[in-house]
Amino acid sequence: MLTPTRNHTIERMLSLMKLVTIMRDGQPTLGIATEHGIVDVAAALAAQPTDGLHTSVMGVIAGGEQAVEALAAYIAGLPLASRPAYVLDEESVEWGPCVTHPNKIICVGLNYRKHAEETNAPIPEFPILFNKFNNTLTGHKRDIAIPKVTSKLDYEAELVIVIGKRAKDVSKEEALDHVFGYCAVNDLSARDLQMRTHQWLLGKTCDDFSPLGPYLVTADEVGDPNKLAIRAYVNGEVRQNSNTSDMIFYCDELVSYISRHMTLVPGDIILTGTPEGVVLGLPPEQQVYLAPGDEVTIEIEKLGRLTNRFVAEA
Prior knowledge:
2 domains, twelve-stranded mixed β-sheet, 19 strands
């Protein structure tokens, strides 16, 4: 039987569940961010074995509430304050994308009113959907090579919805019940490639164009996803400073709309659009695109800060 203190500890872990991906020997493994550091779940299980826990973020997403509760109960019983070897400092971690193998990466274009206005685009009547691929995924603190094929690389701070339950033709009222959690992404965009044709895909799908993370935060901790401050910094300068309340189509509307056209499955991610402040929205004489040596940080309330440095492609 659980003591009141033990119950409180587990409840606190459940309300603070932040999943991360650690790269170890080139392979992704599950980490849990705590106030003492990041718990390497596989390493912890080697030291203190128990049955039935997942050691990958995709396994936890597929396992849903039961998987999260089992992890919280296990971590609540670990001696984290003594900093055993399986508790890692965030600065020493090699980060991977916090969702490693989404079945679908669905993106929403022009989904903030002020962003549509700054690019002189009409307010969409329906969500504008396009897609990315898994080659675009990378993690927090990872260097990103600017492809030689572009001279107009732009940043885009975005909130990401991570699906947790199969969703087919769900109502707006039920839509968020199918969400596992949320994270941040920099939806990098090569504007010259994006605008070359009427299809945006080429400018969105170069390698490492979707750094994702640092944390995947469970939906219960985030609460209302359409009341979150969202910012982008370039070399410490604030470039985007908005709130997800400026979305044209809110998160529940997006999940419902997309699910009417295709089945969403656990681990699918939806990039929900970017607010105003991108380079593309500036007057031509003020447009200075990303260059080697630049550092971009995406910050979303409750989801942490995602930082990447840009380098020249070899």
